[in-house]
Request: fold
Amino acid sequence: MIPLLEISDLVKAFRGVRAVDGASFAVQAGSITGLIGPNGSGKSTAIDCISGFQRADAGRVHLDGTAIDGLPPQRIARAGLTRTFQDVRVYDTYTVLENLLVVAKPFATTNWADAFLRTQKFRETHGQAEARALDLIDLVGLTRLTHAPALILSYGQKKLLAFAAAMMSNPSIVVLDEPVAGVNPTRVNEVAEIVRAANRGGTTFLIIEHNVDFITSLCDHVIVFDRGRKLTEGPPAEVHRDPLVLDAYLGVEPGHEPHLARAG
Amino acid sequence: MTIDLAYVLELVLNGLMLGLLYALIAVGLALIFGVLQIVNFAHGELMMLGSFTMALLLPLFGLSYWPSLAMAVIVTALVGAAFYQFFLSRVEQTEFERSILITLGLSMVLLYGAQYIFSATPRMVDTSWGFEGIEIGAIRMTWTRITGGAVALVAFAALYVLLKWTQLGRAMRAVAQNREAALMVGLKPRVVSRNAVTLAAGLCGLAGGALAPIQLVQPGMGQAVIFKAFALVIIAGLGNIPGAIATSLALGMLESWIGGFYDMVWQEGSVFVIMIVAIILRPEGLFQARGMRVG
Amino acid sequence: MKSGLSGVGAAKVAAVILALAILAVLPLLTSSNYLLGVAVSGLLMTVAAAALNLVYGFAGLLSFAQLGFWGVGAYCSAITVMDAGGSFWAGVLVAAGVNGLLGLAFGYPILRTRTHAFVVATITFALLCNLVARDWISVTRGPLGIPGLPPPRLLGYEIEGSARFFYIVLGYAVLALCFLYVLETSRIGLTLKAIKQNETLAQSQGISPLPYKLAVFTIAAVITGMAGAVFAFHLRVVDPLIFDFYYMQTFLIIVIIGGTGSFWGVVLAGAAMVVLPEALRFSNDLRMVIYGAILVAAMLLMPRGVAGWIEDRRLASLRANLR
Reply:
């Protein structure tokens, strides 16, 4: 079976320093895959390259068998790979609902003339998009705030809104960049539940996160990054007992449980 | 057609003088951009202010050149300091639109204010030197032009020394290079920025004062020069002071030559075409170079 | 809440109908050519400001190229009528066509630049237009310009007199503003403001910024150019002064005071900024001094304009209610 997302020999250097140094890994369709590693191990640069926000110096990225490397971010998003950002990004002046209705893909069958003239076709499409948006708002539990401007949301609520926006185009895979960093610890399980529910709906996830409990409970597969490439991979329970991994984080002796959240 | 050597030499000297005065404006613009990351739309009006100060003070000082010029520099520099204190200091570096619109508003107040008070009619400015000058063979230069060029040269030498070897100048370069690091070593970016704006305004006053007896003085004179200065500073790369001087000299020379040999047609247009092409070819590079080069 | 909103909507519709009615009977109320002239330039400047609002307020592009399009439009209609023997209407269409092409050709390379580079490049474009008008004497007749533009003709009748010309201007202004209103309230407007707020986020959501920016830049060029084309026939003469920075400053101040990105704010500000100073009899210079001071004050005190300031108050109270 070919993996949904396959990265091979990805390289990205800044002024000669190789942030990503020949990374290869794959994400299986239907999985929730974790991507962990010490700070500065090149995870963020790798997903920037995968999602098109930075141009890799070398290497290929295939989404569902089609090469997407070198495409601009908007083309990659339309091809079915969306992402969230570490510094949570939403449109502050837009309402929660508008934040989702901006997303392009649900309107792919309509053109500018349809939008300008509000044709019958456009209104139908808009109705379907709105229905999907309301479902997603319900999924992330923001229904009460549907018509509130995003400006007034809390940090955690904005992260949930960004998550819903990334789901809006019904992508085949969503890359989440630190979905629970800075989120109230009592709410972390809620986020995990939401991701699980979305995953049951058929969406694949690749998650960068430092919170070990979150990764361990949620992911069925974990990829460990170190110095710009994959160090090892496997089920979460095995991976974080791997001596190589412990070494990469702190050089801790096996047997001493590291708290990876603090390792960065 | 035989080319008269004396005529050519006269064109060169005039071009040099014009270029040096352009350079004073362009250097100030580059300085403010380097330190504050602000494109100062009111820069031309500061020069106009210098010219008007010169024009109004000359009769009071019995037409004597130097005290009037000194006052033009001082008045303009003070206005520059006030600009920073009351307006520019309230703008964050990242708010480029606000900085542009504020300086644009200030330029409107100065330009139309001058037009309201003094009317748009151009005025001739007379000094005690009148049209006296020196003649070497067939070449004739008035004292006002010679002095204008010399004053600009001295100003550049002083600026170079200041930026290269004094604490004041080193601080400006440090802030231009890396604001955060400058903060950490104890520099106060606000003080440094105020100094930079004051210095740049003083250079404008000098250029305006020196230009007053050479050209006609009118409220719109600053606007005509400032857009050329934008072009110069961009072609050189913003924040690049020697580059700004070199391109200014080139422009002064170009204008003088084309004006002397052909009709006025296209001479200025060429500068703007070069500039648009330069921006298109290096859209990111031109404005992203951090720091300030002094040579 | 629901009824309150529709109440606001009804009030808006009523206000628009009232304003249109007043404008429609204005020539009957006054025979003063001066007042009608003020109304004509007010309407055209408001249209140009509304076009700038599309570019700056919606797409976030602080473009000074509008001044170039305004003047090029004026020259296009003047040359079409005086030298090519076309009608006023053909002149306005030529202005639209030329500005559309110019907007595309200049916009495509220049929209890749950002912040200061974009601003300075667009200023340079406007200045270049000015220089071409001054120096390309065989086409533009140089610094003296093209005087003696005849009144427009419609169906063989000469539209002589300020009153009739006023109706042409009113018709164009209403059409252009309606177009902008429909555009800005559509999904396209929503997408534009998304790009303005956060371009990378928009890209991550499948939105390509460049086509939107190019379309908006070109649409604004066409609308501004047509306004300039009509304005030329108000002045009856076109010379390089049509590129005076004064016009750009006026467009800009209308947008800033009205609030960038607010359609109604800009329309109201356009009416206020042109009519008020005339009513108070300021000299042109003093008016521009006041505009400049207002611009500085607005940028320091309420950077998002009057409409933005009201919106901020609304959000603040909303926030207070939720907490």
Remarks:
- Residues 252-264 of chain A have pLDDT under 50 and may be disordered.
- Chain A has two domains: 5-88+171-263, 91-152.
- DSSP finds eleven helices and ten strands in chain A.
